[in-house]
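Step 1: inspect the first sequence and its tokens.
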Amino acid sequence: MTWDTASLNKSTLTFPAIQNLNSSLYTTSSQVTVSGEWSKQKFTCSVAHTASSTTTTKAVAGCTKSFTDPTVKLFYSSCDPRGDTHTTIQLLCFISGYTPGKIKVTWLVDGREATDVFPHTGPERVEGKLASTYSELNITQGQWVSQLTYTCRVTYYGSTYDNHARRCTAESEPRGVSTYLSPPTPLDLYINKSPKITCLVVDLASKKDVTLTWSRENKDIVYPDPLVFKDEFNGTVTVTSTLPVNVSDWLKGETYYCKVTHPHLPKEILRSISKGSGRRMVPEVYVFPPPKEELKTKGEVTLTCLIQNFFPADISVQWLRNGALMQADQHTITRPHKVRSPIPDFSAYFIYSHLVVRRADWEQKSEFTCQVAHEALPGSRTLKRSMSINLGK
């Protein structure tokens, strides 16, 4: 067995022939290692078999890489190994610095694909020639301290990129300072009329001499709220800063900046945010009364609001009873999930919200309303759907 590698330096290793099981035939293999500009080179392996007087050649071409690999970082919220096992722990997988393209995120538990978890993967954000996205997974603290290893696996152009996280301990080490910006919620934008941008800095070694400076593209003066510091269980510090913004400025696409400086940082961190541009899809809202079986057997009943086929993913949901706003802790809402569609390049989301009320309240003919706020809705950017035992819907 011989290799033709043209002008490239090479080293060849041919392995001994091994007889196949239940056969008189043999198998062997040869490996070549080259150095230099190999990506555009063609390699030829020639096999001469004396006993059969045959010669066979196979050629293989080097590959040209035309994309940038993603960087995968896995973060987790703070936790107390001695705390409530039902507390929610958030795992955040941040994928950045890759050439825009089809990317798949899978979560593994102890090396096996998790089928009973429901992560939320955010939309791809393109900045210049590179892109970033993220995937969030919520687990209980009981799962987190049970010695299981959670892996965020990213598949991209046939390659996989993993990052792991394993249990919460008192000796957790800081994992490097990271900064995130989050936009105003539709609720604050269109209903409360008091939108705020949030700048979150995690994994600081200390709060001493840390500064967060806000600015905006048009150079107008900004007035952020006071910094909020939180000491995490692993010894790090989390800093949160919120910046009130004008509704009109935000909707017009103004860009805002958050700059973080700290003595332990090799250089300042600068993040920017603005209202995303592009296609919008108006949400479809449907409400469903309690199932008949529930009305017969339980003292509490469940009202459901389905919101589907909307884009972008940012959306807010509230419930009202007879026109009065109900407390947020009285209902639950799923994270946005992508709609599966046979239509190519179709991108939309759906969510559910469940409201549990006393059966007596439902039977008293109270009217319950699901109120949705989303930027694609016309006029006030809100939509209401109501139901009661009288309406039957």
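Step 2: inspect the second sequence and its tokens, then contrast the two.
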Amino acid sequence: MRYPTPSSTKLSSEGSPVTKHSSRRISIESVASSKGIHSRKQALKSRASRYDPPPVRIKIHGLPGYTGGSLPPDVVDPRPPPLNLDGLECIRTLGDGACGHVLLVQTRDCPNLDKLDRPGSLFAVKVLSKERMKLIDRKHPGDTNAERTRLSELPWSPWVNGVVGAFQDELNLYLMLEFIPSGCFHDVIQTRGPFNAATARFYFANIIAGLYFLHGEGIIHRDFKPANILVRPDGYLTIADFGYARLDDGSGTSTEWLMIGTPLYMAPEVLCYQHLTGCSVDWWAAGVTLYEMITKRSPFFGTDEDKIFKRIEAGRYKWPKGLRVGASLKSIVAGLLNTKVEDRLGVDTSVLDHPWLDNIDWDKMQVGRYLAPWIPETPEHTRTWLNKALPKQHCIPGLQLSIPPMHREWDDRLPKSRPEY
């Protein structure tokens, strides 16, 4: 084989009809004349930068990024548009909360609905009147946005009825929550109670798990009662209605904790000036709830609020005659209903360490591996008769009202079977 000589290479280069590039010749000569691998790499990089265009930068979700050298024709946000009041319609009245009534809404089948949305999804919406919120803001400034603020700060938990969104119109504020269809725990106690020790232990373990989650996040419920506990379709319990919730940061004064909650479930320190420990008021209410599970009655019932408050301050209650209650069950109720805050169970010692709860496997309870003693048969709320009247359309101007068929309209056929707490 004949190798090219310098002279032949020079002649063939000079006789070539290809256009000469002076810049390239200078770059190659500079590489050949320089010594060392580092200088050669730098020269090759500088030569490549003249011909290779830089990668195109775009913004996706507000963050800069590269598209791999090519720009897509249009950058589309894959997330669906946020849900608003126009995409909801009211189909039912569920009940009343601490600061407003609760409605059942479903998503509408709109023509511009995103494919990721599910028409017919059900949510619970708490309607708060702006005029009423102004009055509350004058008396209790910290309670105005308490529920929305506290729920938005919480991570999702099966023990808490979580918030989905918040809206407003010219008259109301709307707080959209997860819909739990099986009713409240108060109705379960009244219809299926009193419970035996095993059933009460299961439900009270649910309550303990929920309260420990809230207190671990620094939140005090302050209006804990069976009416504010919802029953999930699997039979487990979920805490709801955070209208009076507060952070346990010690910043509030004693007057901000006075007379907060429902009279039958108020702790003694809420009735008069005492040293408050925050979570103690919830554990007192949990003790009242446990007593109700066993006896189907309140331990401090009275014909008026003055008598109720006197019995709470004295801390005296009696077990019904003829009811067999174990010593450990009486002990946990007595520890929760201790009038001295510093000695109350849950403040002085952990509730989890009480002997009455020794048989509970808390890891199984957290993941829902226990079989509930009662699985509710929940009817379809979109097809059953309305047991409460729907609000007027002018009262909820931002939320469309769905008129039910005649056979499902509310007609006040059933009287009230229990007082509203």
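Step 3: confirm your contrast with the notes below.
The radius of gyration is 34 Å. The chain has two domains: 85-179+385-408, 185-366.
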